[in-house]
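Table 4 source record.
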Amino acid sequence: MSVQIVADDRPVDVLRALDGPGPVVVVDHRRPPAADLTRWVAQAPPSTWLIAPTSGSASWPRLVHRTRASWQASVDAFAGATATTAGTRVLVPGPLSSTLFLHAAWHARQVGATPLTRPIATDSTWDVAHVVPRQLGALLDAAGDLRGRTVVVGGAALPPGMAERARARDVRVVAYYGAAELSFVAVGADGLRPFPGVEVASRDGVLWVRSPFLAIGYLEGSDADRPPGPLRRDSGGWATVGDRGEIRPDGSVVVWGRGDIAVQSGGTTVHVADVEAAVRAAPGVTDVVAFGARHLELGQVVAVVVESSTVTVTQLRHWARHHLDPGARPRHWLVVPALPRTSAGKVDRTATIGLTARADARG
């Protein structure tokens, strides 16, 4: 099996490689691939087309591999949802080692659009942009006329008020929920609904998906001596990565967050996604990471790191008293102007938790 390993600082080479039968491995140019990467890739079945190292919210990268058909099957539906057609100029302002940006650039080529793989600029010489929430804020802060543009947002939930701010500038915002392992799950310009061809169900608060867009799974070598990846399957063809959420009576999908991170505090299980959602809604908060900190008597207590340039710990404690049950209220707080982020713009949970040696530990 001939494997192409391409670094994400060569986007032209990446996209050219994906024109072939694969398998193609796209890696972060700042992190040289492991010496035994080729050995791991050799385990891939013949149908493998793309192998994408992904870390998500975990500390260890894993190798997710998929077929070409698993992406090709969603091309037309995604083009319709994002108003992307032949001739559309598509801004892709993130590294192609992230499947969010890789798919955006690859998809543009499939429909005859032009991918612009460059950082966010102050001009608006694009029609459709694919961003994470933080980048949407940067676009809205930049000068220029954005009227009539479409911005496709993935990777995380939009902060409160961000979509309204975009609409006030006549920017159409299309949000979607997915994962490297699942591909597209739900999409919408006004609330999330199952992506065409996807079935979504909530089992005990955990979202399960059945669709033709699923990845094959992980290459076993990438999980050696590491915790198992979050992808799980059942005998009926359904899969989950542990994200929590619900399906409302009108069919819309609400995503609460990753459910495999919980804090056991004094016999109470606290899901950090619930804490993050409550704190994120506080005035002045841009983003937040919640996690468990050791406690001699309770086992763990909730700790949070908040991204904000204006809010204080006192204000946050007041907010928490009115929006969280006692067992879920954070005991440790740290406010920083900016959370550590990966090259793809997602919050780096491991690096964020490492900041907490400075945390306010008052109970």
